[in-house]
């Protein structure tokens, strides 16, 4: 099918939103993928820095996962979980083994929004309370219920939705009113000064005071739940002060609520130091929701909770036709095995730490890079007009900066960034650790293999950013930052090679 025809169909027959969210001046016509690579219909190869919105956790068409899917396809495509079949039980046991007690009961869904919807319902039934608190800037899904948890004007509609959801201040130590140079659990801290004594985070206390204010003013005495991403994803890899979640969980439980960690982006080893993002905060949630990386692109999600909460929910009947379908379970089971065998968590830690550290050097050099943050391969680079005006951006300035950033400035910065890595690695003769990212966030396969080194060197000077690297700029909404992703186009002779079949 020709490209023109595809665009015509996209205009006429596809969800019109898809025309809106195409970030590229020239659309990318993706045709095939293999591990960290994507090929377009012309055979041009791309290093995938976006991983299908942080979803392809172990690599496009990973041979092992593909084989597992093929095997299951020949055996049994579908039956529902009212029947007993091995893949469902093998998978539930395997997934449960990745959680501390008492998180041992698993509900399988088909997406992250569906998982969060289910978590909302379970929290309300278990606690007998209705109100739910989430953080501003968060993204928890686009369904009528989760849209209330999601705190980002771009995803809101002027219709009644998300009843009982209240958004509280996000403890953003870079852009929020408080923050310093020791707050984050990241290899890189903010550029803000900090006078806090060791172990005493003033910013944390201020943000916790804001949460208390929300309890005092915006919700009833008893609440159902608090939802939080361990690191905000769509909101911009925003990290909270180190003890924020710990103290917030305590307060939420005092108000009768349960604590839900949305691991849709942070789960499955992306943050490097731990398998789950919540472990980096030294907390144990009452419920964990997940999707994206769980199936390496196979549509899947899950809620993991305690037997006690599950018991409250089992008073009614809950049925999900596709949740835990044999094919999904076979794929997800193989993904878990692959994460272990390919050691992608360790890879996220090693490569992510390197990237964050190198990016921070560029932040120190370029005025336009305001912040570099994150953990493992959940990395955010926040673009600013300049480091002084950072906290007084006007709407119009944001808009201009947003436009600038989409064109020359960001390209220059990111080209510089890329070239510096290349040069550094050349000089040292070390491996160039550029690989499929897990949404910088990106694929967790951004590794140090020989092939990767070849990739880096062969790309040097010939890399064209067909879009921006994954970065953020303050956007038209005050608390929301747009994020853009990149397909790095490797315009080398070899990159024109035909797809791996
Ligand atoms: C943290 C988080 N939660 C929930 C969701 C919703 O997941 P889905 O798009 O699978 O419904 C997303 C999607 O981006 C997400 O990033």
Automatic annotation (TrEMBL):
Coiled coil: none annotated. Pfam families: Aminotran_3. GO terms for cellular component: mitochondrion. The keyword Lipoprotein does not apply. Its EC number is 2.6.1.18, 2.6.1.40, 2.6.1.44. GO terms for biological process: glyoxylate catabolic process; L-alanine catabolic process, by transamination. It comes from the Eukaryota. Keywords: Aminotransferase, Mitochondrion, Pyridoxal phosphate, Transferase, Transit peptide. The keyword Mitochondrion applies. CDD domains: OAT_like. PROSITE patterns: AA_TRANSFER_CLASS_3 (PS00600). One of its GO terms (molecular function) is pyridoxal phosphate binding. It catalyses: N(omega)-methyl-L-arginine + glyoxylate = 5-(3-methylguanidino)-2-oxopentanoate + glycine; (2S)-2-aminobutanoate + glyoxylate = 2-oxobutanoate + glycine; L-ornithine + pyruvate = 5-amino-2-oxopentanoate + L-alanine; glyoxylate + L-alanine = glycine + pyruvate. It is found in: Mitochondrion. It is an enzyme of class 2 (transferase). Homotetramer. Multifunctional aminotransferase with a broad substrate specificity. Catalyzes the conversion of glyoxylate to glycine using alanine as the amino donor. Catalyzes metabolism of not L- but the D-isomer of D-beta-aminoisobutyric acid to generate 2-methyl-3-oxopropanoate and alanine. Catalyzes the transfer of the amino group from beta-alanine to pyruvate to yield L-alanine and 3-oxopropanoate. Can metabolize NG-monomethyl-L-arginine (NMMA), asymmetric NG,NG-dimethyl-L-arginine (ADMA) and symmetric NG,N'G-dimethyl-L-arginine (SDMA). Belongs to the class-III pyridoxal-phosphate-dependent aminotransferase family. This is Alanine--glyoxylate aminotransferase 2, mitochondrial. It comes from Oreochromis niloticus (Nile tilapia).
């Amino acid at each position: 099918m020709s490209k023109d025809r595809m665009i015509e169909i996209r205009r006429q027959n596809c969800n019109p939103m898809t025309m809106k969210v195409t970030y590229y001046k020239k659309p990318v016509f993706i045709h095939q993928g293999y591990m960290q690579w994507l090929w377009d219909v012309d055979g041009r190869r791309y290093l995938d820095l976006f991983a299908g919105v942080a979803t392809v956790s172990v690599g496009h068409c990973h041979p092992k996962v593909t084989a597992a899917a093929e095997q299951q396809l020949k055996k049994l495509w579908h039956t529902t979980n009212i029947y007993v079949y091995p893949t469902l039980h093998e998978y539930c046991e395997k997934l449960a083994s990745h959680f501390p007690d008492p998180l041992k009961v698993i509900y399988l869904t088909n997406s992250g929004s569906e998982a969060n919807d289910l978590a909302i319902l379970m929290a309300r039934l278990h606690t007998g309370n209705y109100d739910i608190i989430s953080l501003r800037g968060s993204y928890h899904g686009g369904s009528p219920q989760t849209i209330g948890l999601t705190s980002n004007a771009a995803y809101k509609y002027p219709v009644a939705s998300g009843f009982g959801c209240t958004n509280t201040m996000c403890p953003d130590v870079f852009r929020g009113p408080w923050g310093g140079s020791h707050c984050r659990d990241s290899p890189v801290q903010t550029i803000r000064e900090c006078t806090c004594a060791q172990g005493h985070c003033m910013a944390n206390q201020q943000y916790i005071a804001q949460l208390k204010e929300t309890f005092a003013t915006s919700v009833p005495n008893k609440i159902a739940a608090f939802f939080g991403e361990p690191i905000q994803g769509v909101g911009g890899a925003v990290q909270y002060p180190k003890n924020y979640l710990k103290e917030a969980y305590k307060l939420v439980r005092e108000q009768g609520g349960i604590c839900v960690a949305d691991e849709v982006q942070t789960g499955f080893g992306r943050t490097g130091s731990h398998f789950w993002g919540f472990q980096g905060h030294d907390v144990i949630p009452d419920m964990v929701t997940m999707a994206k990386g769980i199936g390496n692109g196979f549509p899947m999600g899950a809620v993991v909770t305690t037997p006690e909460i599950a018991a409250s929910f089992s008073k009614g009947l809950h049925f999900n036709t596709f949740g835990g379908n044999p094919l999904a379970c076979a794929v997800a089971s193989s993904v878990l095995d692959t994460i272990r065998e390919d050691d992608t968590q360790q890879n996220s830690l090693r490569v992510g730490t390197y990237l964050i550290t190198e990016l921070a050097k560029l932040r120190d050099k370029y005025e336009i890079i305001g912040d570099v943050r994150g953990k493992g391969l959940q990395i955010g680079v926040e673009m600013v007009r300049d480091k002084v005006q950072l906290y007084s951006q006007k709407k119009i300035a944001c808009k201009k900066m947003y436009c600038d950033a989409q064109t020359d400035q960001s390209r220059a910065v990111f080209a510089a960034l890329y070239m510096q890595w290349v040069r550094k690695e050349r000089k040292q003769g070390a491996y160039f650790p550029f690989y499929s990212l897990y949404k910088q966030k990106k694929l967790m396969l951004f590794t140090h293999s020989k092939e990767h080194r070849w990739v880096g060197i062969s790309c040097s000077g010939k890399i064209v950013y067909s879009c921006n690297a994954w970065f953020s700029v303050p956007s038209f909404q005050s608390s929301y930052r747009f994020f853009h992703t990149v397909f790095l186009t490797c315009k080398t002779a070899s990159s024109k090679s035909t797809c791996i079949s």
